[in-house]
Amino acid sequence: MRLFYYGTWLTGLLSLVSILAVYGSNRSILRDLKRIPVVKNKWLQNYLQEYQEHLKNSTVIHNPAVYMTRRMRGRKIGRIPVRKMKVFSWMTFVLSFLCMGAGVWKIQRTGMEMIRIVPSRREVPALAFLAVTGIGLGIVNLLFRVLLSTGYQEEMIETNILDYMENRNREVLKTNVKQNVREFSARQQAARKMSRRAKNRAKVKEQKIQEPSVSWQKEERAGNNGNQEQQVKAVEARIRETAATDDRYRHFLDEEEEKIVKDVIQEFLK
């Protein structure tokens, strides 16, 4: 009989302690979410580090809700996963009622009416005491579960982390857009500088190409001018020879007429 009595107490207390441990873990995460990036919870630290690595590597998370759910399943209290802790809490809660029922069944079968409590050594009705103990522990356990509301805490954790991820994605997107704009403007400026340099280089090349032709034209013009002078002098010498050898043509050309003939010959040669 005492085995079922103490079993009821033990399983009820284990159920209560496990649910309090889950509540404490959720509360620490919610507290740290308000002071990101300075966090103390190890699970949240690892999660934020992993998410920052995804942002650095530009890894796209297509379904953040599923990603968040999988990471929540990996939470641990010490070395025990939170999911197993919750399952253990429900199992001990059910076991406390089973111990109570087994004790009631044994009392009815053996006909035991009184049970002695060890600390006070008082005898109390066995059936009533065991029933009150089991039902009382069950009610207290259920009240703690309702008041602590670990399920609501986990929903708040997921919501806050998803909001954080969304805000971080927006910040990263804004910084990327600004960086792309800066890079684009820098590329445009570099292209303008390159185009200016290319134009200057093209002008220099054209000048280098045109310099020989210009010098050749100047030389050609100088040569033509020299040839024209030589031809004018040659014509003038022939005219003088003709006038000197033949007396009939001496009176045709005086000094003014010679100048006129020279001008005519130069225009003709041009």
Please describe what this structure looks like.
The protein is rod-shaped. It starts with a helix and ends with a helix. The chain has helices at 2-33, 42-56, 64-73, 82-110, 126-148, 150-245, 255-269, and strands at residues 76-77, 80-81, 114-117, 122-125. It is mainly alpha-helical and 270 residues long. It has 7 helices and 4 strands, in the order H-H-H-E-E-H-E-E-H-H-H.
| Largest beta-sheet details | 2 strands, antiparallel
| H/E series | HHHEEHEEHHH
Strand order of the largest sheet: 1-2
Q: Helix- and strand-based class?
A: mainly alpha
Terminus-to-terminus distance? 143 Å
Measured on Cα atoms, how large is the radius of gyration? 55 Å
Strand % is: under 5%
Poorly predicted parts: none
- Helix content, binned percent: over 70%
The average pLDDT score comes to 76
Q: Let me know the number of strands.
A: 4
Approximate shape: rod-shaped
Q: What's the number of helices?
A: 7
